[in-house]
Protein: ABC transmembrane type-1 domain-containing protein
Organism: Candidatus Muproteobacteria bacterium RBG_16_60_9
Amino acid sequence: MALVKEIYRDNRRIVVIGTALVIGSALANIATINFINETIATLGRYFIDHGATLIVLLVASFVFGVASQWMMTALSYRIIYQLRGRLLRQVLQTEFEHINDLGKGKIYAALTKDIRNIQEGFVIFPFFVHGVTLVLGGIGYMLWLSWPLALLCCSGFALTIAVGRILTGRFQQLVRHDRELEDSLFQQYGRILDGHKELLLNERRGRLVYRTLMDGAARHSRMLRTLADRYIVVNLHMMTVVTLGLVGLVFWAVYRWQWGDVALGAAFALVLLFVRQPINMAMNQVPGILAARVSLQKLASLGLPEPNDLDYAQPLCADWATVDLREVSYRYPGSAAFALGPLDLTVKKGELIFVVGHNGAGKS
């Protein structure tokens, strides 16, 4: 969450403008739906009197929609560029022992798998926001038409969302388990590349390594992702069916409970059919956004230090004569078995120094 706040702080102006354009696009779309409803209610007279308004609304919807998507997708790629540079600076400024404890597999997975997931998540997030904004605008319009029918529809959506949260929660849990397997897979990939020469000479050993990888982490990863995607498929089609079912429920309320006339029922049906597409658009983006969230959590769990500027504040003087070290000390993190220092040392320019000591003596 701290990383997301930092990203927002660095790009606040673009986020605000992009959000305003998304809201403008949603309002233009809702106004177009209202124009169509008024035309139906007046048997076409409203269209004859205000036909030019429809053209203005369509142009506004197109301009706002395209501008918002352009700005938000450009922002997404800008954020990924910033995030990739941030992660590289963190790796460069992390203590060697911590990198060694993490293992190359986790670092490779973070620089490739996590960055890719986060990139995809940020790229599709504007489409998710656009879809959600259209849905919220449609709900607001239904409340303006008839709050009893709107509350009936909102109850159906709320129940579906509650079930969907359970399904997406299970999906995210499986994706998190799969992400843990990625570290093991990358670690084994590295070992195969490091030992490629030996494995090439020993085919039996090579087959054993292959079977161990494919029957272990790779197979488990496939099973986890297959099961996770099933939850998303159920969630997506459930929301689609519920949206269509609400159309029938609205007409039932109009005819059976006398909650309105046929024109009102038709207006609600038109709005529900309109929000069906943005609902599907938003639901299709959920897997990528959740995977990006898991990757962000994975990056945070690496325990890398906050990055500093790699540029030196003051350049090294060209005519330096000596380097003085005073009270230099070092202790291995998490271990009190070895400590170096405090050490005082003066090195003159051009002086040749040999550091002698056995393995583990602290020469590095």
